[in-house]
Design a protein that fits this description.
30 helices, about 65% helix
Length: about 625
Amino acid sequence: MLTAWVEQLLGYASGALEAIRDNEHYPALMAWARTQGAEQCGGSLDMAQALAPIIWNQTPLVRRQFGCEPLAEPRPDEPCWCDSGRAYRDCCLRVELPSAVPTHLMWMLSLREWRGETLKAALESRKAPAQALLEAGIVSAESGNNGRAQQILESLFAGERDWQALAEQIEPAFEILIDLYQERGFLRKRGALIERVIASGPDFLRAAAYERLCLMHLDSGDLASAREAFQSAQRTLPDSPSLAYIEAMVLLHEGNVGKARQRAAFWWRRLARQHHADPDQLDFIAELADDPESTLAEQVINSEEALAGPLTALQALLHTQQRPPRLVLSRSPEGALLYEPSRREASLYAGWIEACEIEIDEDAALGFLGDPWVTAPQWLQGLCANPEWLDAPKVMQALTLALASRFGSLPWMVDTFFTPLAERYAAWLTQLEDAGGTFSWHDADNATLLRTGLALVIGMERGAGPQARALAQRLLALDAEDSLGLRELVIDQLLREGNDDQALAVSEAGPEDADMLGVQMGRVLALYRLARHDDARAVLGEVCAANPYIVRVLCEERPRPALLSVDMPEPGTRAEAWQYRQLMRDQWAASDGALEWLSRQPCARAGESRRNQ
């Protein structure tokens, strides 16, 4: 009953607003109410007339600089304000509405309607109720009008609003606005809003900002900063239920599955003692304590309604697939190994591309000529209906790239998608190894198989580091040119495992190129750990000559962040140094005296002088 009333009210209010905008005077609204308005109320003239004054009183008028022009409610024996000629007690006062009309309704509908300068002026008037701004922003975002949603929600944070008094509106507005900034690429605005909230927001909003900052650091792989942001959120609002979820993610990124279970159990015991605890949240935290990886994976899969069913079906398919058929390989006159798709594989890929519609970018190591997730429901359904498509390496390539682009930064998604795909891919990789000979990226269609391996390495790196390293080393052995840039990843993993001798050997097996910052700095750290300080100093000199920012960015406790708007920053730039810091500073900090030694080196001072010139 109430749902029907809400729909009826929205229809009536939308029609009333259109009538008001045509004239912006009360008699025009009443004329509409007695005709079209009655139709919106199921033919009830009494209800249509009773609603009209209530609607009018809360409608912002452009001619009054977005102020209202309210009518005084008459006394029972005075003429009714609907201008029916009857006393108020015998007219609108006796009409019982199913529920009250929200006081912000007409502002919300107006914000959805206004455009351009009118919308800008309305927002600058600061007369819009906070709830109207929030709801109009949500509706705009859900309908795909992201720019409009951003403009409306930003007004909630403009000027000197009392955020504490707007607790019910400001926190969801903050979350949505941060998502909009991320989606639209406004990373500086995102960072500025988070900094402003942390600096001057109330505790509940500061905690939300710290949690967002933690998630951003996790996405970029900066685990030390992620843990620091989590601890700040915990100090700010220690009883926030969302901390259980955030801490589980931090621990899984750090590879501490057992600790994630223990801490989730701790949070469950702590929150269960609170009388206001939400039962659904407690159930979720209990599931985290039982199996954090599966719980988070299930949440990710079900987070988007249109993809939940197809992704669940894909998960089931991948865990039941058999070994793929053998590849048809040939050799060049020079003896190099060549892969080219068979007719059957080409036909299978044609079925895939008809469903997906988005091609691989053949000129890039990773990427598509478009966003494959736009058409995901259709290609996921097509693949599950035609599992033989996975017999084609080009389909495997497209699928692993698509999954890595969406889930590759989430360690708890490894067993869901990437482990079964890696097991399937291993059959082809073994066939290549058994055949022997070089396998170059530039020959035939070899890039398809190598690119698939790279996507799997990326998908497994955070959740299954040793397995990712083992796969990367196998690919490096096949492609000695390291067309995929895997040497740096292998070195990083070996350093994390404490295999310094092996990390040094891998770094020295590649080309002597100081522009390969990750490889060269990995060599420096390995040499330092092996107490070969003179050799480390010599390599560091070459690195500083190629990138004068690296030592300062790596050694400072809180350097100014660099904007990483692209995956591969230009060699020699501060962005490149910042990217390396995010990936590997924790290893330098964990190496006894390494950062202090680094800061004392002559090349570090030379780099500083060069920057100051």
